[in-house]
Design brief:
Length: 813
Amino acid sequence: MAGVHKPHPTIQSDKIPSIKMDLITNSLYFLGGVSTFAALNNLLGRPPRKHEMQHIFFAGIALLVAMSAISRTFVIQSTDIANFVADLKWNVTYSLGVFLLIPWFTAAYAHKISKAYLIVVNLMIAGCIALNIYLPLGISYAHLDTLLITPLPWGEQITHGVGRHSIWGYFAIAMVALIYAKSLADIIDTYRARRRGVDLHMLVAFVLFGIFSSMGLAVRLSLLRSFSPGAFSFFVVIVVISMALMRDNQRKIIESERRFRTLIEESPVGIALTRQSRLIDANPIFLEMHGYSDIQHVANAHLAEILQLRETGQPPEIRTTPTTNATFESISYRADGSEFPVYVSTRTIELNGELHLLTYMIDQSKRKESEKKVEYLSHYDPLTGLPNKSLLLKHLRRAIESSGHKTRWGALLHVDLNNFRILNDGLGHAFGDLLLQSVGKRLSNKTRPNDTVARLGSDEFAVLLTNLGTSRSEASALAEARAKEMLLTMDRPFKLMANEYHNTSRIGITLFDRDTGNIEDLFKQAELAMYQAKTHRQGSICFYEPHMRDTVTTRLGLESALRKAIDKREITLYYQPEVDDQNRLVGAEALVRWKHAQRGYIPPSQFIPIAEETGLILQLGRDLLDIACSQLHLWQQDERTHGLVLAINISAKQFKNRKFIDDIRATIERHAIPPENIKLELTESMLFDNIEETIESMSALKKIGIQFSLDDFGTGYSSIQYLKHLPLDELKIDQSFVRDISTNDSGRNIVRAVLAMAGALNLGVIAEGVETQQQMEILSTLGCTRFQGYLIGRPVDARTFESFLDKDSSPVT
């Protein structure tokens, strides 16, 4: 705050400074103008952002300092008390205003804003300003005696007030000192935290401010009379602060340029700047995109020559106009001549009073590749490379629509692989995938160019045959012939890695012409025909008939009921006795039975195939194995049944399941039964599919003590070469041979041959399906020593089976 000298003795001429007063006055005006110019130049040179409010407060401080300097000239030129007091009040008010803005400036610069502190300072400074305006003599004087006008030899004069200082003046001085101390402390903390050059400049400015303010206070308190800093001191401070802020601006501009340069250079988007259609700058991505390593290779080149855009969809011409703002896709070329898809966006900007064109470019190669991949996956099966159902629908629709006025028949075939889940679950998905790929290739090799082979999912394929003739009968014959060719090629062994795998298929066929309605119905019809084919022998073909819907509906209802029955453990075991040639009970066969609440007893021939197809056989097999072992445990407690051997039928899926051996072991241990009392009955088709794995699994179970019986022997194609390597204990003569043994010599000869082969292989033999005494006698004569059938006893529940033991210890009826 500018001070006023206390009165002192009349100034002698030799003590007057050798500077004319008009020069001092003009200098004060000049300093005020320069200060204001510096502040406004700093403010307008770079408009401050919201977080740079220190520029606003700095401009306010500079303006108040300039006004204080101007008002000071009026004070020293006053000629009466009224003008002196009025001018002095304005001078002090401007000075107080400076200290009103200093804490705001410091808070904005140091980013240390204490709202409570700023509010208190504002209220105190505002109070001081109000007191200064409304007190009679302001806060400078409590009492003014007179004015001391000191003449100078050059005709100028300086006016000084003579009187006592006000207590409010000392209060204002103390408050200003506290504000200065707090602001200086904040600046010091800021410098320590950031250690920047601009902060050092600001610290110097505040130190100078402290020095000049202290000198002003000393003059105000009559401690110093020879020098008064006045407006000059504030001018120096403002110039230093202005330099600091300008350097801060320069630093921020450099940082901003570096930041934006980094953003542009690291941007994945190619950016080019042109003037009059010639390239003046580009980021690395743009250069790399077009095959250039440095901007110098293409500097000042015409943009059109670099891009060489090939019009796709008529893109606008890239040229600089005040309204250029285009976005389009096109094909661009690299320096080596290779092309690539691009997305281009251009807009006109003004730089240094000239129009420039800013071009953004994105290489669309990866996106286009992704789109092609998505397009491929949406229409093709990724495993086999065949069309999927979506693409097949399009081909089917096109085939129907292309029939024209002349009826042309076509066929849709639904191909299903038998026992695929056994392979997939038993050997792993790698083998399953190889089989599906091989099937796709074989089906494709049996079709014409206009036909379509598609994979519908899992192990199901579809084949679309077109142009099969103009009559339904002709189309039916051709479709059947093509389907038989497919079955034949599917019957050949598949080479899966180092293994040979035999697989059969079933095919459902439905015909269509131009009058076909809902296309989705064709898929359902072909699928229904395929399900109907499953009820026939393997490798069968079936055409769709309307009544099949009822058959499939019944089957689906049975499948649903089967799931519930397995969950509720409603399916149980019946036991059919086995005797030796002395009619002694030696064992029993466990046969599955299901009594439905509404349908009554449902034969295994109806629900076991469904369980096999749906995979329910695994859970059902585990449950039945548990029931059988539980029954064996009970028989172990009774002397009459202690030594009985229980034969349990095992499905192919059970046997080839990786967990089967562990399940057997765990069940035996849980029920604490001798393993040798369990005899697993296997079919020929199970054993000779992947014979090496079969022998390995059987040998592992054989080590535990479990016996094996080959069921339905003679109905398949057993190889004696393989048979001798299997760890079997028994052969079971199929009932079809036993049924004809008394009336057919060939049946008797087959039984004789089986018995001879079993003797050579050291295997036991049991005949099933014995229904008459004559059959039993003939079998005994031929050398068979074990029998099973209705003559011996029908399958019954466990309680009824035990009742046989009370009938002369023989279950024979």
